[in-house]
Structure formats: C-alpha cells, structure tokens
Amino acid sequence: MLKAVLLLADVLPHICSLSLVFQKRDVHLGNIRTSVEKTVNLLTTRKTQNGPWLQKEEHLRSTCNITDPTPVDFDTKVRECFLNGLIENITVRFKDADTIDQLAILDLTGTDNIETMYGYTEIEALANTFDMDPETLLIQWQDFIALVSSAELTDRSLPSLLELFHSPCHKDKNLLSMYPLVAKLFSVAIIQPLSTAEVERIFSQVKLIKTSHRANLKTQTLTKILTVKLNCDETKFEKILDQCVTTFFKKKNRRLVNVV
C-alpha cells in the first residue's frame, strides 16, 4: 500500500533523529527527556496531519499510475494503530526519562558559579526515587557542591566528579564516607546505558582485528586483543608490546634473534 510506505517515510526521520542522540560518545543526561518528548509530540502530530511524503500521495499515484487493489480505512486501521504502538513503545522504553533528567544536575560541566540552592528540587525527587532521606541527601549535596566550587576543578563532568570519591589523590579527604548518598547518585548516573557509541566502536574493532586472514582467531584471544585495544592509550600499549616481545624471545631462541 502506497500510503503505508509514505507514512513510514514521514515517520522514520523522527525515529532516526532520536536514535542519533544516543549515538554520540558523551550523551548528556539532560537531553534525554527533551528528545523523547519532542519525538512523541511529532509522532502524535502525524496522527492527524500528513507529513511531506503523504502530501505527495496523489501526485505519486498519477505519475506512477499506482492503484490500491482493496481500499481500506487507512487512518483508523493503519495510521492510528501504527503510531499508537510506536508511541507506546518509546514511552515504555523511556519510562525513567524523568529520573534521568533529574540525574543530569550531577553533571556540573559549564557551571562556573554554582548557586546555593542549585539542584534542590531534583535532589528531593531523587531522594524519593532511590529511597534516601531527603534532608540528609540535601545536606550532603550542599556540602559537596561547596567543595567542588572551592576546589576550582577544570573538569566537572560526571566521570571527573565521581573520581573525587575514589581517586587516591583525594583518599585523605575520605569523601566517600562524608557524602555516601551523593556518591551513590553519581554511581547510578554514570552507569546509565545511554550511548551506543562504545558498543559500535567494539564491533568496528572486531572487524578490523578478525579479518579473513585471521578467521581462526579464538574468542579468548580476540577478547584479550580487544581489551588492550580499547583500554590502553599509546604509551601503555608500547609498554605492553615491549613486555610481550621480551617474554616471547626469552622463552626460546627465535629465528629472528639468530638473524639479528
């Protein structure tokens, strides 16, 4: 049915735009709810308003001489059912969008001057969500942002702030014991599986490593190579490579050694 194809052509760009939000390496938590709501609103509009492709239906029919064998009630039986199912799917999948949006206040990137009451509404909501004492959490949050402000950190992203709790450089401050509830929120925020960039990066590396000439590479070996490839910077990799080469030649005399 031509109308169904044109409906897909009108709807897919909205879905693709939402998908692209999650294909970035650093997905900001605060962009999730806005992107989801925007997509749902656009899909809801398509229930009653034709998109650019459906508006061309008559022109395409006459130009390409297309006829439908059995006319059906497209709006009720096709368009409405399809869009309702799609909207429900998105809504269910992002049912925690409000919580994710509240967790976004933990990312202090770009906040040079943090206000005293910064994030209080979100912190109270998060306390209820994660069954924490609101008053205790608010006190810890207020003290923590005061600490961040006084520390004059250049990087105030989620990973950097979480590192404050676990880094050996700040071990003497015992921040984990001072702000346990805040640390828990940071741990929750940092593990949100939002971005697909790293997953796609792994698949790309697998294709580069396991080529047709290395098709018999064992899974265990492939895993080890991927671990090194994805987690080591150039300096660390050079050290590991030197150690591997040294160990390789020490096991027994190699032809390359004899040649040298």
Describe this structure in words.
This protein has 260 residues and is mostly helical. 65% of the residues lie in helices and 0% in strands. It is built from 14 helices and no strands. It has helices spanning 2-21, 32-45, 57-64, 74-93, 97-103, 120-129, 134-151, 158-166, 175-178, 180-190, 197-209, 219-231, 234-251, 255-259. Helix 1 (2-21) runs antiparallel to helix 2, helix 6 packs across helix 7 (134-151) and helix 11 (197-209) packs across helix 12 (219-231). The mean pLDDT is 84. It comes from Mytilus edulis.
Key features of this structure:
single chain, 260 residues, mainly alpha, 14 helices, 65% helix, flat, HATC_C_dom, RNaseH-like_sf, protein dimerization activity, signal
Task: Describe the secondary structure blueprint for this structure.
Layout lengths: L1 H20 L10 H14 L11 H8 L9 H20 L3 H7 L16 H10 L4 H18 L6 H9 L8 H4 L1 H11 L6 H13 L9 H13 L2 H18 L3 H5 L1
Helix pairs in contact: 1-2, 2-4, 6-7, 8-10, 11-12
Mean pLDDT: 84
Rg, Å, rounded: 27 Å
The helix content, as a percent range, equals 55-70%
Report the oligomer.
single chain
Low-confidence parts lasting 5 or more residues at pLDDT below 50?
A: none
Distance between the termini: 72 Å
Coarse morphology: flat
Keywords: Signal
Protein name: HAT C-terminal dimerisation domain-containing protein
Domain HAT C-terminal dimerisation: 168-229
GO molecular function: protein dimerization activity
In short:
By secondary structure, the protein is mainly alpha-helical.
